[in-house]
Amino acid sequence: MKKSELPEYIVALQDAGLLISRKAHGAHHRAPFEGNYCIVSGFWNPILDQNGADDAFFRQLERYVAEKTGVEPRCWYEPQYDWMPEEIPE
């Protein structure tokens, strides 16, 4: 979504750093889909992602969810580029 398409209050909150930036939120939607799960402020992403370390919180959570539900995260497989959005947020 382009900046011009967002409500003014969302843009103001993003510009103030209270909501995650458009660029950082876009990273959440791009391969390899193995991090950037904290999409409200992004504050916890570096701490919980730990640069993709195998024992990082999100890696452990992915394994737990897959074990309990049988649903595996996309980051365990090669991306399917045919359905990915082409536009990168401003």
Q: Tally of extended strands?
A: 0
Helix segment count? Answer: 4
The poorly predicted ranges are none
Gap between N and C termini: 9 Å
Which structural traits does this protein have?
4 helices; single chain; globular; mainly alpha
How would you characterize the overall build of this protein?
By secondary structure, the protein is mostly helical. The chain is 37% helix and 0% strand. The protein is built from four helices and no strands. It has helices at 8-15, 22-28, 45-49, 57-69. It starts with 7 loop residues before the first helix and ends in a 21-residue tail after the last helix. The relative contact order is 0.17.
Characterize this entry briefly.
With 90 residues, the chain is mainly α.
